[in-house]
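User: Please run a holo structure prediction.
Assistant: Happy to. Please share the sequence and the ligand.
User: Here you go; the ligand is benzoyl coenzyme A.
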Amino acid sequence: MTVISDQTQPDELQSHFDETIARERRIEPRDWMPEAYRKTMIRQIAQHAHSEIIGMQPEGNWITRAPSLRRKAVLLAKVQDEAGHGMYLYSAAETLGADRADLTDRLVHGRQKYSSIFNYPTLSYADVGVIGWLVDGAAICNQVPLCRSSYGPYGRAMVRICKEESFHQRQGYELLMTMMRGTDSQRDMVQQAVDRFWWPALMMFGPPDDESPNTEQSMAWGVKRHTNDELRQRFVDMSVPQAEKLGVTFPDPDLRWNAERGHYDFGTPDWDEFWAVVKGNGPCNAQRVAHRKSAHDEGAWVREAALAHAAKSAGRR
Ligand code: BYC
C-alpha cells in the first residue's frame, strides 16, 4: 500500500484510493477521496436520511388512531426509530463535510430527493402493517448489502439500521396476520392496502438498470453492491411466499414462477408514475414537504435553545 504523507502527489492519492476499493477495505472520513466519490456519498446518504425523516409522516398519521394501547406503543417506537436512523445518517453525511442545516434546507426547497414511496397516502390502519411488511421489507433487501458499502460511517450506520428495520418488518407482518384472522372487512382492508403499496414498493429500488445513471459508477466504487433490478427481483422472490402464507395476492397478472430462471417473473412497474413522483408530482409530495418545513420552522426555538445551552456550558467549563 502507498504510504500517505503531506507530500503525496494527486496521482498517488488516487491510486491509494483505487487500491483500497479493490482490496474491499473501507474509505474513512480522514482518507483522501475523489470529489466525485464524496459527492455521490453525500447525495445517497442525504437522500437516505431525508427518506427516514419524511418516512415518519405516513405512519405517524396513525399514532393517534391506533386501535389499542399496545399497537400505539409499537407504532410510536417504530416512528421514533426512523427519526434515529435519520440522525445517524445526517451524522454520516457530516463526516464528508456536508452541513446538516444545509441538507434540510435543500430538502424543504425540493433540491434534494427522498424515497418515492413516502408520497403515497396511508388510508387505513392496514397500511401501517403493509408499510412494515413491504416497505421496511424492501428497505432491508436494499440496505443489508449496504452494510458492506465502501464508505465506513455509512456501512456501520447501516448495520444498526438494518437490525431495527428487521423488527419493523416483523411487527408489520404480525399486525397483518392478526387482521387476517379477524373479520372479512379486516381482510379486505389488508388486501386493499397490499394492492395500493405493491407497485410503489417495487419502485423503491430505483429505475431499471438500463435507465439508472448512477449504478455503474456506484458499483465500481463499492457504494452499491447490487443493481436496482437484482434487488427488485430478490424482493419479489422473497415476498411471494410471505403473501401466500398471509393469504393475500399481489395485483400483478404476470407474476408467476419461472422454473428455468429459478425466479418469479413479474410485470413492469409504471415508470411514468415513478418519474412523476420523483419529480415532485406524486399524490402527497407537496403535503410531505410542507409538513417537514413547518416542523422545521416550529422547531427553530429548540435548536436555538440547545445552542445557547451548549455555549453557556462551554463558557462555564
Ligand atoms: N425514490 O441512478 P439511480 C426506509 C433517483 S427509507 C426517489 O438508480 P442510485 C424507511 C436517484 O436518487 C428508504 N428517487 O440512483 C423509512 C437518482 O436521482 P439523482 C430509503 C429515486 O442512487 C421510514 C435517479 O432517481 N432507502 O427504508 O444509484 C419508514 C436515478 O436513479 C428512487 C435508501 O435511500 C426512489 N425510489 O440508486 C419505513 C437506500 N430511486 O440523485 C422505511 C439508499 C431512484 O441522480 N439508497 N431515485 O438526482 C440507494 O440504495 C440508492 O440511492 C437507490 C437509487 C437504489 C435508491
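The chain has 13 helices and two strands.
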